[in-house]
């Protein structure tokens, strides 16, 4: 438990990090540093995207698997670390 | 050898019921093989026979009815929770979360993902991997790609009875919307059940219009207010002007009274530049140009009768078909008439007689489009009969440049708002022409057949890349032009300035020449009259004297033309000029014969 807290805190204190969300594979947010509405939105949308990305990678080569997903937008970058049961989502505003 | 078997029946036996009976087979003919016949044939070896074992297929074209689609949003609510937990209950959700957090799998996973994530975050902070290198350098657009335009969307008139799309207007901010006025311009041809509505379309959604405008009579022209994008001005077929507010619904907010309006369809109505943003003026073929303030539509604020005799006589007035107003020159405006004259007027004149400043003649038919070049306001484009002409304000006798005579009528045209030498025209045979005058004078740079019926109206969006054209059956097509026609090239402004100045100078010289020749003619004819008076044998000119005079005249004309040619050859710089006055060549050719 304490290690988890520590890890999250370490990530949170990195430069430019706007929010962290931990979501289950079904899309239920477990832990979040953002408000509830945004959390739910991110969780729902990103879960679908990760599913799609995973299927894409698998279809190209069945031995392959998705390890990381980065979405760069004009305003920030959404980084998603997927796993079998959970995802870790971090929204960062990279330094210009 | 013919084998024939004859059945015979008596006429009276016809129609009798059949009586079938059995009997053994009978041999009628026995043809035995005759080897002598083989001499007529040649044995072929090998035989080449094509055999295919495939499915038999046939081609058939099917075109379905247009698929109407609508975009709707869906509201998502929180889901994914296991069945026994109610997402609304805070307690249950918190309990679930706490349970997950104690799970060992969770702990391990989060540790792993955390390290991975940290790595990427640090990466981001170290270097911006998406940095644009060489951002400041200008893109060398040196592409030799051919100009092209492609259709993006087609907006069809949803009514059964199709009307012509007579006027288009783009929404002033962002141009996501297009307002189209529909009416039937053919005299008394409008069907009884023809709808009067005009529509505002969202360009992303061609299946149904975003908003309907319901006037009392079909709208012939429609314009968005450039200052306030919710207000539209419409001129209708019965001479009324009305204005709509898109926030207030489909009915016009106010319309002009019929007695004080126009007596013919209002062909063009434009918004004026004013502090209140409510001034407009309109023109119609009844010969009047009326000014209105939309706050009080019951009667016009000012009236001008297009009578060239400056007497304000309506019977002599010229019918107006197009209007032109440039906000950079607020006191002047121009009117294009049905008779082919462009009348330039001054708004601030003291007396109505002084309002009409001058006219430009040169067209043979009604002037359907009139627009000043947005970069060079002294030059304007007119589209009428079978040509499009470019004029300079200073030269009143003729246009400085013109296109050749086309096979079909030109109906509308406009300049490109981003390139000073590019303009577009549409024709009655359904083609859209893009002219780049710095590139080629004789032919359009790009000519596209947009639809089978005639195209009636054309409007370019402010970005210069999109344009919409409306056809006779109410179909508006949205086209996108290739980037080399919608971005300004290097030196384009300087080259275009040089071109316009050169043409203007040429016309001035030609005019001066003409005047000189006329003066010479007049003085010569006066002199010859005096000579004849002095001649004792008046009327006894012998054939030789006549011939001598004819020869003298001929040589004088040839000499004058040659001199003119030399002058022009000296003026020519860049670009071929094929629009040399054809009279010069023709005269010389005739005399050479």
From TrEMBL, chain A:
Compartments, as annotated in UniProt: Cytoplasm, Cytoskeleton
Entry keyword Zinc: no
Keyword line: Cytoplasm, Cytoskeleton, Dynein, Microtubule, Motor protein, Transport
Alphabetical list of Gene3D superfamilies matching this protein: Dynein light chain 2a, cytoplasmic
One GO term of the biological process aspect: transforming growth factor beta receptor signaling pathway
InterPro entries: DYNLRB1/2, Roadblock/LAMTOR2_dom
Domain Roadblock/LAMTOR2: 4-92
GO molecular function: dynein intermediate chain binding
GO cellular component, one term: cytoplasmic dynein complex
One of the Pfam families matching this protein, by short name: Robl_LC7
Membrane-spanning residues: none
Function: Acts as one of several non-catalytic accessory components of the cytoplasmic dynein 1 complex that are thought to be involved in linking dynein to cargos and to adapter proteins that regulate dynein function. Cytoplasmic dynein 1 acts as a motor for the intracellular retrograde motility of vesicles and organelles along microtubules.
PANTHER family in alphabetical order: DYNEIN LIGHT CHAIN ROADBLOCK
Entry's family note: Belongs to the GAMAD family.
Name this polypeptide is given: Dynein light chain roadblock
